[in-house]
Design goal:
13 strands; single chain
Length: 180
Amino acid sequence: MQWQIDPKHSSLTFGVRHMMVTTVRGRFTGFQGLIDFDPQQLDRSSVAVTVDAATVDSGEASRDGHLRSADFFDAATYPEIAFHSTKVRGRGGNELEITGDLTIRGITKPVTLEAEIEGVWDDPKMGRRTGFAAKATIDRREWGLVWNQPIAHGGLLVGEKVKLELGISAVAVQAGTQAA
């Protein structure tokens, strides 16, 4: 069954260490995607998501401008971040492992998400709905996100590891209709 991600009820967030002592969190507000998912045939499942890189939001306008710049996402040159699954594997119960290709700044690298099926239910307004939670940790340098500054005592301003967390709600695409 095909499901369209509902961005109004989903979240794509990240967290990265700042000045070695705290974690700054942010999110992307513009994204869309399709999920082919049948709990009885997990190996035939797939996920395709595109994210508007310019919609990065860390809650601080000047930092968001820097994140959109060539120092980080270079959103003017690389407007989309994309994830396309290559394999979905059940891990028992509601747990999944979703492996795929993550493209940032035109660089594609494999990533594995630890995911959980949060349920399938009937939404009286939208029809059939499903939910997933997923997380992964990536090294931002692998995608060309290498900007940094040294700070006192031998540390760096921005951590290299980025924790990704996704809360996905998706609605069933009805037969004969096209996902927007």
